[in-house]
Amino acid sequence: MTINIGRREFISVLGGTAAALPLAARAQQPSLPVVGVLGSGNNPVFIQAIAEAGYEDNRDVHIEINSASARYDDLRTAVQDMIGRRVAVIAPFGINAAKATKEATSTIPIVFVVGVDPIKFGLVDSLNRPGGNITGMSLYTSELHAKRVDLLDKLIPAGAPIGMIINPKMPDTGIQEQNAEAAAREKGHPLIVVKASSEDELGPAFATIAERHVAGVLAVSDNFLNSQRDRIIALAVQYSVPMMYPFRADAAAGGLLSYGTDLKDVFRQAGNYVGRILKGDKPGDLPVQQPSKFELVINLKTAKTLGLEIPPNVLSIADEVIE
User: Fold this and answer.
1) CATH number of the domain to which 307 belongs
2) Which residues contact 230 (CB under 8 A, 6 or more apart)?
3) I need a surface site. Which of 3, 13, 167, 183 has the fewest CB within 10 A?
4) Residue 264 confidence (pLDDT)
């Protein structure tokens, strides 16, 4: 497959908003099994893991990508297209894509990658024995916000407000707010939530952060917000506010610090599951995997720009320091 992907597209896979891509390869070799990917773009780690399981793209299997928009009707149409193609496995990336796929088929194996609790959102009844035709990877852990707030707490004055930028259109917004509010309250900080679901709303969101004298901000994993990474990082610097991000790529792009899942490991496991299913394993017998590896990345260049000194006890636990 020759579709290219940039770093931003790689992090944005949990929502899926790019335009649909042409699917011509299967017509050339219809005898090969097809893996239908419903999400944003071509994930090289995922595809490599499938190859390592013995299924190289365009030799042993066709990997067809439909980057449907986040609108639910578009996702359902994309799933029906995959079902009509008699794909061997569907890999939906993002909760909306996963829900649309689960609703559409109870027979085609599904391997999802989502950023939410798959039990709360009705994808599976159990992580250990998901049953039926579905399994996958969940980036969700309830401890993440607590750890991010704990790190911010070490950088800002005691009792100062912590802000949180959310996209109200994402289905897990309420859960993320609750977890962050509980973590902030435990550390003695009020939580101020600002919302942005379009580019025009980002500037006013940061203006509100400044008006409310927010001392540090949490950014959550969301397709729209991830797509606006550069703008958000620039606004954080403009308003001189320390900001905690969910992924290493955020810190590498100029964000102050990030704490979150090793995404490469998540997609490597998802690709491995697809390979096992192609070999005959039943998805319902494969436990839903949750992340076990997290990384703290600190960008000292950004800290210097903000005039912020990172405490030694925070620097000492960083997995990576960008200087």
Assistant:
1) 3.40.50.2300
2) 253, 254
3) 3
4) 87
Helix H segments across the chain? Answer: 7-11, 25-28, 44-52, 72-84, 95-104, 143-153, 173-186, 199-211, 223-227, 229-238, 248-252, 263-278, 300-306, 312-315
Give CA–CA dist 284/4, Å, rounded: 32
Please give the pLDDT value at position 227. 83
pLDDT digits (tens, 9 = 90+) for 288-305: 999 888 999 999 999 999
Q: For residues 153 and 302, state if they share a domain.
A: yes
**Among 263, 236, 309, CA closest to 11:** 263
Indicate if 105 and 247 belong to the same structural domain. Answer: no
Of residues 222 and 185, which shows the higher confidence score? Answer: 185
Cα distances (angstroms) measured from residue 28 to each of 33, 48, 59, 91, 278: 12, 22, 11, 22, 20
Q: Which of 16-30, 48-62, 129-143, 287-301 has the lowest mean pLDDT?
A: 16-30
In a domain, 298, yes or no: yes
Please check whether residues 27 and 99 belong to one and the same domain.
yes
pLDDT over threshold 60, residue 272: yes
Length of the chain, please?
Answer: 323
Does the residue 1 lie in any domain?
A: no
